[in-house]
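Quick review question:
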């Protein structure tokens, strides 16, 4: 079965977890005398070595900017059959520790993005704004971290530690990356600190994956495993171009399909968390946007390869007031073509709150236009 894995390590308190690394040393038997060993001339070896990229300096410079993160939070579970009974609560109280309260610890990675201690990581590593977070630096110093804010839409969290002159990963422009360019993934898989893996950019603008609400991922084949969540994706110039977030896996381990939040998006989220403590986003009310299949496009008279289908909606929304109805297909946003449902959601989320946008759609094969007021999306914490 296909599944996505957010590669942070999760443990329950009171349970001793041990990692045992097992392996086999395979010794090749010598070839028989009548088998000739392949030979490579010194010239060929020199040419092959010269043609391969050397990222040793880049790795050496950026590894210190990646940290280990341990987060502990109290998870409440109402497992008692009478937990919500008011009479039971009156006599015995409703202490969450009575039924199912459990300490949960997650381990992951983070990236130092400012010399004074701001650190980006994943929301699923931190867990909540109330979590107790400890950061271990490359020099083995352990420091308590404050959770500045978390953003479930993008799975980004921002931490702050009290330190100065920290090694920083400089920002890169994720909009300029190209498919097949070299990248390094740096993190702490399986608590193996400062691990570096090498790969390429496999694709950009990956969406409709079901990993987060706001999806615009960089796909890479650089190995990403449990504990790599929140680590750095670095380009060949040593610039931070992504925050490693999830992997596609059928086995539970790396299969060469990893996903990172682009640096430009992560930086916007960080700036909003610093300024507001959350990320303000636009909304036109509760609507369900669905991908448009080829068959649906043919039935609705929509050109193939574009548009987002309005599947369901509430009546008490700016979208309904503007005239949008279930079954409409939105094909343009302020004159910009809409590729799919995920693209429309991103455009709405990024729209200025309080403003008005023009949505162009198709209804029964006819062009329709809607002037919709942008409200504020409900904050998810």
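Suggested answer, residue by residue:
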């Amino acid at each position: 079965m296909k599944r996505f894995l957010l590669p942070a390590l999760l443990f329950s308190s009171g349970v001793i977890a041990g990692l045992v690394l097992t392996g086999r040393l395979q010794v090749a038997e010598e070839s028989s005398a009548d088998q000739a060993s392949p030979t490579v001339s010194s010239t060929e070896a020199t040419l092959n070595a010269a043609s391969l990229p050397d990222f040793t300096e880049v790795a050496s410079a950026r590894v210190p900017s990646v940290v280990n993160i341990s987060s502990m939070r109290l998870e409440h579970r109402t497992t008692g059959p009478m937990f919500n009974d008011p009479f039971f609560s009156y006599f015995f109280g409703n202490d969450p520790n009575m039924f199912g309260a459990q300490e949960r610890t997650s381990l992951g990675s983070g990236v130092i993005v400012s010399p004074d201690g701001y650190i980006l990581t994943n929301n699923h590593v931190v867990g909540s704004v109330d979590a107790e977070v400890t950061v271990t630096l490359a020099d083995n110093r352990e420091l308590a971290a404050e959770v500045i804010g978390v953003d479930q839409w993008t799975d980004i969290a921002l931490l702050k530690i009290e330190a100065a002159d920290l090694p920083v990963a400089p920002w890169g422009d994720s909009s300029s990356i190209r498919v097949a360019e070299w990248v390094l993934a740096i993190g702490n898989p399986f608590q193996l600190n400062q691990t570096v893996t090498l790969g390429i950019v496999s694709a950009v603008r990956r969406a409709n994956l079901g990993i987060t609400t706001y999806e615009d991922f960089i796909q890479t084949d650089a190995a990403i495993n449990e504990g790599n969540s929140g680590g750095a994706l670095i380009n060949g110039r040593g610039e931070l171009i992504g925050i490693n977030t999830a992997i596609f896996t059928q086995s539970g381990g790396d299969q060469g399909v990893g996903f990172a939040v682009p640096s430009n998006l992560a930086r916007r989220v960080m700036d909003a968390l610093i300024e507001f403590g959350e990320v303000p986003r636009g909304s036109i009310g509760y609507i369900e946007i669905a991908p448009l299949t080829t068959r649906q496009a043919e039935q609705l008279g929509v050109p193939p390869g574009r548009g987002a289908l309005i599947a369901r909606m509430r009546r008490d929304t700016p979208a309904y007031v503007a005239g949008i109805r279930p079954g409409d297909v939105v094909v343009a946003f302020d004159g910009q073509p809409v590729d799919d449902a995920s693209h429309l959601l991103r455009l709405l989320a990024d729209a200025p709150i309080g403003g008005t946008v023009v949505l162009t759609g198709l209804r029964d094969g006819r062009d329709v236009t809607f002037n919709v007021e942008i409200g504020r999306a409900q904050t998810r914490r």
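Why it works: Residues 263-276 form the longest helix (14 residues). Residues 153 and 212 are 6 Å apart (CA to CA).
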